[in-house]
Each structure stands twice: as structure tokens, then as C-alpha cells.
Amino acid sequence: HQVILLLRHFFCKSFAHTIKERIERWKIQAYEKYPKGQSRGRWKHLKQILQAENFQDCPPHEPNYVNIESPPSTQPCKRICDITGYEAPYVDPRTNLRYANSQVFKAVRSLSAEQVQQYLSIRNAAVVLK
Amino acid sequence: RPITYSGADDDGRRQNRRKLSMPFVSRIRRQTDYNVFPSSIPIVIDNGASYFRIGWAGETEPRVVFRNIVQRPRHKATGETVTIVGDQDPALMKYFDCTRSGPRSAFDSNVVYQFELMEYILDFAFDRLGANGSVIDHPILITECVCNPVQSRSKMAELLFETYGVPAVAFGVDAAFSYKYNQLHGLCKKDGIVVCPGFTTTHAIPFVDGEPVYKGSCRTNIGGYHVTDYLKQLLSLKYPFHSSRFTWEKAEDLKLEHGYIAPDYASEVRKFQEGTKEAEEKTRYWQLPWIPPPVEVPPSEEEIARKAAIREKQGQRLREMAEAKRSSKINEMENELRSLRFLVNQLDQVEEDDIPSFLSDTGYASRQELESTVSKVTQSLRKARGEPKEEPDESEENTDSLNNEKYPLMNVPDNMLTPEQLKDKRRQIFLKTTTEGRLRARQKRNEEELEKERRIQLEEERRRENPEFYLEEMRAQYKEVLERVDQKKRLKTNGSNTNGNQKTGGVGRGERLSAAQRERMRLLTTAAFDRGKGEDTFGSRDEDWQLYKLMSKDHDEDDEQPDSDEAELARLSSRLQEIDPTFVMKAEEESNQTSGEAQRVRPLTEEDYKIVIGVERFRCPEILFHPNLVGIEQVGLDEMGGASIRRLPHDDGELEERLTSSILMTGGCSLTPGMKERLESGMRMIRPCGSTIHVVRAMDPELDAWRGASAFAADLNFLRNAFTKVDYYGKGEDWLRRYQIRYNNL
């Protein structure tokens, strides 16, 4: 059987309640409703929610969550150096990092593999092994 | 697992519930006037991914505002799990063990999906508002995202109806409320666009005739969260040593304080690249606490003098001791010499025949022995007295005579000797050659030294004659040798420095092999060559196993002998350093160390503890306008306006004019300085020339949404827009999907 613990706080300056209704807080506590083992797997993530919605069945002219996503940009992509933030006309073929000039290139070549992957993952360009 | 409530003690005692007193874990005070409000006054909630705001309808300020996160750490002493909603109070956190409980949000992107957390949050919020029961008897207006999926909406409605017993619920979009509120105050007209960069998403919603047209809205999945995350990652990678310092909260603080949007990214970044003064002013430095290591105070003059005096005294003492010893030895030897001489004299006086018996007393076998002993003792006495060594020609004479004495058998031909004597002779030959060899080596060394001296003198002379020219020559020589050394090094490492973690020294496509690598390949192939059975004789000789040594990678590095070039380089550079005031030694590149290690080699200075935030200041908020920079393939803020206008179902050019002349920026991110100008110029770029663009920021981007909602709820017609429990259960999901409130009441 569960022993329900409720913690109350005693504040030093007690507030004087003019009308104090002693309503029993007979609310079922949240943690009872969602016992620990189940709560994690219970909630559907956004992707699953959207899948379940079956937006394909809806008429296309009605706005829904998926409809209103922005289109990809039509402007030319801005290429900035991964390390310094300057404009980067060059790409290192070995690591796929963008760099701005030869000093930055030296720095790029001296990075460890882990750092390289971290820089790339900022740009969503890291190598992901599935 | 208890829930913590902080607030005044509620006297409700019930059975089966143990009360524990605990320090309170929230700084938000509990509101006291809950009961003043009648049941018809709605409660207004702005449920945002960043902050949760709740208050009463009709007021201008929300009563309770907190960060929309939940943590459930365990109390260290009692082991019970408590729930903390909103920002934690650091003073109290020490009571809790937070290792297994990170802050969790009920949101996934901008949609609520974790209703357990939502319930904790609502519990806390209602309690802070003053509610003292589990039934909230007021209608509720709650905000949601644009086109909220019906599942999330229905779960939220269910939560409110079932758990809290709310009579009526209404859902609205926060950006729309903000726009209506600002329209009320005249900042924007009834046709316009609201651009709302939020915490995880950015929306652009057009308004026609005061109502939002969701068909034309668009949403990019970038927001303040991504900006902060970007800043955090950049700083952690730039300063890996301090990466533990860059928490998400700290990054957010930095962003709020220093972030700004450059009117044009390319030109701004060029300023920084060139290092102009303007860039210097815009760079911010964050100095981390750093204690310099205790500097050894160079000993003062008195210290040095004192130490020198002590050392001298010790030296003196030692010298005295040595003197004493020497003099005693000299005395002894003199005594011995005297006695020996006396013996010799006595011997002279004695007859031949009596010599053996006479000598047997003294211990010497014959007269020659005695005489040789005498000479030896005189020699050592002379040495002890410190007389100068004999002249070289004398020593040669001596060596000759010594030779004859030491190696008496040398000059005797072989056939006259016995086998033993032959052995002796061989030994003597050996000794002689070794001593002669040593002498020769010493002579050669002397000659070389003389040679070097002469060369140095020559150089000095040349320098004095023509200093400039000489310097030039030196420099040219140095450069030449440096190039040679560099090239050799490059060849050796094959142009691959330590990205060779990825493809370690291996042969990739198009990689040229250095000589060493070629050699190794050859060895490997010959060793692996299958000669068929019976023909493999590897291992029969011991030298075969040396192959493995040659094959190993370390062999390459061991093989490096100090090249003559490198020695030359060292000599030249030291010479140049002496005579040339402007010479700076070119530091050798540590090609084999990763950047982290190379920096740790030199002692850490104060500079290392200074975090420089220059380009990052405007690079991070730039992603709002260019989500490509973080890999999100969608339009940025400026193009979103254009995209939303394109999506509107109309063909009215005038409408577009009206839309662009009233653009409102709302949402927390729009507080970044420089956004207004950038958005304006961005819109101008994509709109036809000459169209009116007018961008205005909401009066209070963070709170306007709540204020708009509050004004909406205070309206008498609010209840027409809300739906009750009966409606909810009666009308079904489809109706709920199409449910929208009409904003034009405001």
C-alpha cells in the first residue's frame, strides 16, 4: 500500500486568510496516476503525434501543423568558416570543414577527429553511422 | 514521492498523510487573493516553451511567471523525490542530489506532449495563484502553438477538465494575441504580419481584417534555444579547457547580454577579420578567475652575498683539510725516503755476500728493487709537492725507457720466447697500441680545437670588416638551411599532420608515400610473398628477425639522426641571435602534437583564462536569418514574411502593400538589438521596389501575448469562444480540430 507523503512548508510570516475554507485536497496526485515505470514510454513524441494524425487525409488547403512549415530558402547559401566565423570560400577535402585562410587551415588540420565531428555536427553535417 | 508546495501552511489536515516540514523551494510567493475573484473571472495562461505565465483576466501583469521546466531531484537526507518547477534556487539546491534529474520540459518543439510534467506545472501554477483545492472553478484561456495537433489539444483539454474540473476552456495563439493587443494600442493596423521568433520556433502569420489567416502562416524550426545552443557549442570548441564552464544557462546569459544582429553579416565579419578598431571595441572579454602560480622571488643581494660567503667558507674548510692531508702524506713519504736512502747507504757499506741476509730483514729482494722503490717514492713525493709535470720530450724519453721497461719482451723476436712469454708479449703489444691510440686521439682533439678557434677568429675579422654584408650573408644562409630542413620534414611526414587520427598514416586515395613508407611497403610485400611450400626459409638465420624491427613504425622515428642540416641550422640561429638584434627564431612546428597538448606544454598564463567573444556576438543570432548555418534547410526571418504573403490565397496587390506596411515583431528573441533594421532591409530585398515596409517591435515582446490574452478574456463575449466539458465530450475530435477562436472581439 502506498503511503502518500505530502510536504508542507511553514513560512515565517503566516498569511492571515480571512476566509479560510478547509477544502480537503482530495486530488489524486500526479505521480499516482503515472506510476514510474510507465510514464517514460507513455508519451508520444512530436514525430509520433504527427504520424498518428494522418495529415495526408486532410484536405490540402486547410492549414495544419505540417502544412505551415517554411519552404527552403531561395537565397544562395551563406558559407562561413566553421572555426572563426569569417567568410569561407574554401572547403577542406579531408574533413569537409570550411575555412577562411591558410592560418585557419593550419588550425583545421591540427584538430582531433572528435573536434572535427563536433564542428560538423553544429552544421548538421557530421558523419552519422546508423 | 511527495510533491513540494511552498507557501503558507494550509491547515487542512487529513488522515493518512504525514506532514513534513521542509524549506521551500521556490522564490515565488503564493498569491493571497484567490478567493476574491468570483467564478466568472477567467484565468489566463500563456503556456510558452520558455516561460509560463498565469494571471487573472483583465489585469495587465501576470501574477506568476516562471520558467517552464520541471526537475525531480532526490533529497539528500531523506531520499525522497521532490518536484521543483521553474528555476531552481541555488541556495537550496545543496539539499538535493541532482545528478539523475536534469531539467525536463513538457514541450517537444512547441507542442506539449508530456502531460505528466504539464500536470506538475499546472499544479504548481495554480497553487502559486492561491488556489487551495483541486477544483479550479474559473474558465481558463490557455495559449498553444499555431495549428496545434489535435491530439495535444485534446489531451490538454482532458487534463483541464478531468483533473481540475474547469468549467470552460479556450485555446488561442500567443502571437495573435500579441498582435491584437498592439493593434489596440495603435502600433499596427488590422492588416499586417506578425513575426514571432520564439524559443524553439519562429512564426510569420498574416492578418487580414483583424483575423489571422493560418493558411498563409509559416513556421521555421529555429528559435532562441538554437541560438543559445550554437553559442554554447562554439565556445566549448574554442576553449576545450574550460568547456565545463559553459553551461546552457551561462550561454543564455551571454547571449542576452552581448548578442546583437549585424545589419550586414559579410561586412561586419570583414571588419573583424581585418582587425579594425571598431572590431576591437565590439569584442568582449570574459575573464575567468585565475590565480597565478607563486612566483619565486629572485634572491636579493644580501641573500646572494650570504650564500656566497657560506660557500666560500666551506670551500676554505675543504681546502684546509686537503692541505693537511697532503702535508701529512708528504711527511710520511719523506720519512720513507730517508729510511730507504739510509738503507741504500748501509747496503753500500755491506759486502756483496751479506746483501741477501741483510735485505731479508727489510723485505726487499735485491738492490735493484730497493733502488726502484727509492725512485718511485721520490717521484710521488715530487708529484705531491705539486711540482710541474715533466716536459713532453722528457716524457717521450720516459716513454721510450718505459717502453723498454714495461714491454721488455716487445723487441725480442718470437722464436726466442717460451709460450708463456709469447702470451705476455701479445699483452704488451696490445697495451702499447691502446695507449698510443689514446695519445693520438688527444692530439687530434687538440688540433680540431685549434682549427675551430682559427675559424672563429676569421669570422670575427670578417664581421668587423663589413658588418652589414656579413649579416645579410648569415640571414640568407639561415633561410636556405631552414627551407631545406622544412622540406625534408614535409617529405617525411608526407604532408599529413595529425588529422592522421582519421586515416592514420594509411594510404588513402591519391596520397603519395614518403620514402620511408615506400620502404616499409616493400618490406611488407616481400615478407608476405607466398613462395609456396618448402621454399620459405625465413627464420633459419638470426638476422631474418631483424626484419620486424625494420618494419615497425617506430623504426622510422628512431632512425632520425641529427641531420647535418639541422645542426647547421641550430648553429646559425644561435649565431644570429647573438649578433642580430632583429632576428626572431623561427619556432619549430610541433607537427606531432595535437593542439590541446601543444598548448598545455607551455605554462598557463592569464591570457588562457580570458574568453574572447567577438565574432560570436553576431554570428549566433545570425542563424535566425540564415538557418542554413546550423543545418536547418528553411527560410530565415526576413524571407518568412515573403513566404507567408505568397501563401495567402488572394491576388490583391494592394493587400500586400497593406500587409508589409504593418509588420510587428514579438516574442522573446525580438529583443535582440539590431533585429528591426535587419528585418526591414531583408523585407525590402524581397519585395518589389518602392513598396512600403514598416517594421515595429511590440511594446513588450515577452509579456504582450499574455496581456493580449488577458484583454481577450476580460471581454464579455469570451464565453462564446470557450467550450465546456459537455461540448468537449459531445462533439468529438473533428470538431475540436476545427475549433478556432475569433479574435475580433478585442
Automatic annotation (TrEMBL), chain A:
Subcellular location field: Nucleus
Pfam family, one: YL1_C
Main location: nucleus
Origin superkingdom: Eukaryota
UniProt GO BP: chromatin remodeling
Keywords associated with the record: Nucleus, Transcription, Transcription regulation
Descriptive protein name: Vps72/YL1 C-terminal domain-containing protein
Gene source species: Thlaspi arvense
Lineage: Eukaryota, Viridiplantae, Streptophyta, Embryophyta, Tracheophyta
UniProtKB/TrEMBL annotation, chain B:
Stored Pfam families: Actin (PF00022)
Coiled-coil segments on the chain, per record: none
Keyword Transcription attached: no
Biased composition (Acidic residues): 390-399
Stretches the record annotates as Disordered: 368-414, 487-514
Polar residues bias (residue ranges): 368-381, 493-502
InterPro entries hit by this protein: Actin, ATPase_NBD
Subcellular location: Nucleus
SUPFAM superfamilies registered for this protein in UniProt: Actin-like ATPase domain
Keyword Nucleus: yes
Alphabetical list of CDD domains matching this protein: ASKHA_NBD_Arp5
GO CC terms of this entry: nucleus
Keywords: Nucleus
PANTHER family: ACTIN
Similarity field: Belongs to the actin family.
Name of the molecule in the record: Actin-related protein 5
Source organism of the structure: Thlaspi arvense
Source taxonomy: Eukaryota, Viridiplantae, Streptophyta, Embryophyta, Tracheophyta
